[in-house]
Amino acid sequence: MFSNKNYQPEPSVRLSDNVKGYVEKYILPRQKVFEAIKCVWTSTLPAYLRDHSRIADIYRGRLTVVVDSASYKYELQLRCAEILEQLQRLCPNAKLTEIRLTIHCPDRNFTADSG
């Protein structure tokens, strides 16, 4: 049996305190970056491209955008350099280095506020 007279148990920490700390440290900063990128994305694109694309993920400087057809993907590819430049200028905390476009199933209905 452990017998140390100087041993003092650590004070108990509530789970809610741990969760709150995790959310404040990891989730909220990412959410702020994502919202800033979404705002720039929606203000940069014309409505017809915005309606056929959505931001899917941001990971290690790569913005992944899902597009509902090859024709819209091609049109976005033509604009990617310009869009990336604007995102880098207006959202420097995102540290974006590239935009990756992927095509999603055509039965998915995109709207301006999805993503």
Overview of the molecule:
Helices cover 48% and strands 17% of the residues. The protein has helices spanning 15-44, 47-50, 70-90, and strands spanning 53-59, 62-67, 98-103. The protein has a 3-stranded mixed beta sheet with strand order 1-2-3, covered by helices on one side. α1 (15-44) crosses α3. The protein is elongated, with a radius of gyration of 21 Å. The chain has 115 residues and is α+β, with helices and mostly antiparallel strands. The chain has a single domain (16-103), classed as Fe-S cluster assembly (FSCA) (GMP Synthetase, Chain A, domain 3). The protein contains 3 helices and 3 strands. β2 (62-67), α3 (70-90) and β3 (98-103) form a beta-alpha-beta unit. The longest helix is centred in the first third of the chain and has 30 residues, at 15-44.
Question: How many domains make up the 3D coordinates?
Answer: 1
Helix vs. strand class: alpha+beta
Strand adjacency order, main sheet: 1-2-3
The fraction of residues in strands falls at: 15-25%
Q: Roughly how much helix do the residues carry, as a percent range?
A: 40-55%
How many angstroms does the end-to-end distance come to? Answer: 56 Å
Query: Number of helix segments?
Result: 3
Compressed to H and E, one letter per element, the order equals HHEEHE
Point out poorly predicted stretches.
none
